[in-house]
Amino acid sequence: MSSLGIHALGKYKLQVTLTKPVTYFKKLLSWPLFYPVNKYGKQFGTNSKYNVYDGPFKLTKWNGSSNSWTLVKNKYYWDKQAVKLTKINDQVAESTETSYNLYKSNKVDETLLTGQQIKNNKNNPDFVKRVPNTLVRLDLNQTTVPAFKNINVRKAISLAINRQQLTNDVLQDGSVPAKGFVPSNMGTNPKTGAQFNNESYVKNSVSSNLSEAKKLLAKGFKETNTKKLNFKLLVAETDTNKQTAEFIQGALEKLPNVKVSISVVPFAQLIATQQKKNFQATLANWQSVFADPINFLDVFESNSSYNTVGYKNSEFDKLTEESEDELANQLKSVGMH
To answer: Is there a contact between 52 and 37 (Cβ–Cβ < 8 Å)?
Structure first.
C-alpha cells in the first residue's frame, strides 16, 4: 500500500499521506465509503450476510434485491448499552400514498410524506421536518443529443421551467427553487459571511421567461441546424419524480418543436442507466458528502466519473482545480474555514 501513501502504524493507527493538501480530507473520512470493511470477494455487499457491521445495528433479511429488511442490535457495538431498540423493520413502498396509508392504519411507525400529505400533517405532533441539502438537477446528455451541447438550447430549457411553481404548486413539500448547482448552507465567504449559493446566483439563468426561452431556442436551433427536439426524460418510479417529470414535460412542450416523453423505471435501474450514460435526459439527485460547494461543482469536471452528461469546459476545469488547491489552502493558512 506504500504506493498509495497508506501505512499501518499499529493495530489501531493508520497514516495517510496526500499528494497535495486537501482542506476537507477529515470530513471525507467520515463518509461511509471510507469505512474499513472486509470484502467477501465478488459476493461483497450482494447480501446482508456478505458485509461487516461496526455500527449500532447490523443488516439482516436482505437478499440483494428485496424491498424489506431488518436492522438488529449489534452486540459487538462499542456503545451497545446506549442502544435502546432491539430491531427495526424496514419496508420500501414505491408510493408515499401506500406508506402513508400503512402509517395511518398503525402498520408502520414512520413514513415519508409528500405534497398534500405534508400540508395535512403540519400541525400533527408526530410531524418532523428534516431538511436535507439535496439538489435535483435536470441532466441533459450531450453525447446522445448533440443539440444539448449548444448553450442557447440549454438556456432555453432552463428558462422554460418555472421552479417556483414546481416547488409551491406541485411538490408542496418544503422544497425551494435552486439558485444554481449548489444549495444553501454549503459554504460561506470567509470575508463577508455570505452564502455561496447567494453570491453565485445568476437570476436570469434560472428564472422562468418563456418568451426569452423561445428566442434562445430559435437561436440554438439555427446554430446547430436543428429542426426539432424530441427526447426521453428518464426518472425513478417515485411520486415526487413522476410529478416533477410531468411538470417539466408540460413546461418544455410550450417551446416550439419540442416533444418530451417520460420513461419511469425502478431506482436501481435509473442509477445503472445514468452511470452507463445511456439516457437523453434524466432527473439526478445529488446530496452533499461534506459542506463545501466543490462537492456539487466538481461533478462537472471533464474527468469526473460522475460527469455523465458529456459536459466539457477547460475554463471550468481550471477554476475548480484552483479553488480546490492553492486558493483553498491559502484560506486555511490564514485560519479561514
So the answer is: yes
Q: What is the pLDDT along the chain (337 residues), one digit of tens a residue?
A: 557 888 889 988 888 888 877 877 887 887 777 877 777 888 988 999 998 888 999 999 999 889 899 999 999 999 999 999 999 999 988 788 889 899 989 999 999 888 788 888 888 999 888 777 789 999 999 999 999 999 999 999 999 999 999 999 998 888 889 999 998 888 888 888 899 899 999 998 999 999 999 999 999 999 999 999 999 999 998 888 999 999 999 999 999 999 999 999 998 899 999 999 999 999 999 988 778 888 899 999 999 999 999 999 999 999 988 887 777 666 554 433 3
Give CA–CA dist 40/50, Å, rounded: 6
Type of residue numbered 185 = N
Looking at residue 23, what DSSP letter applies?
T
53 and 72 in contact (C-beta within 8 Å)?
Answer: no
CA dist 72 and 91 (Å) reads: 14
Within the chain, how many helices (H) and strands (E) appear? 13, 9
Please, where are the H alpha helices in 177-306? 196-199, 203-206, 210-224, 239-252, 267-275, 294-297
Q: Whole-angstrom Cα distance, residue 154 to residue 146?
A: 11
Can you say whether the dihedral through the CA atoms of 257, 261, 267, 268 is positive or negative?
negative
Q: Tell me, what DSSP letter sits at residue 262?
A: E
Conformation bin of residue 32: beta by default, left when phi > 0, alpha when psi is -120 to 50: alpha
Place of cell 481550471: 318
Q: In what order do the strands lie in the sheet with 57-60?
A: 57-60, 68-73, 87-91
DSSP 25-62: HHHHTTSGGGS-----GGGTTSSTTSS---SSEEEES-
**What is the spatial distance between Cα 8 and Cα 1, in angstroms, rounded to a whole number?**
9
Q: How far apart are CA 179 and CA 182, in angstroms?
A: 7
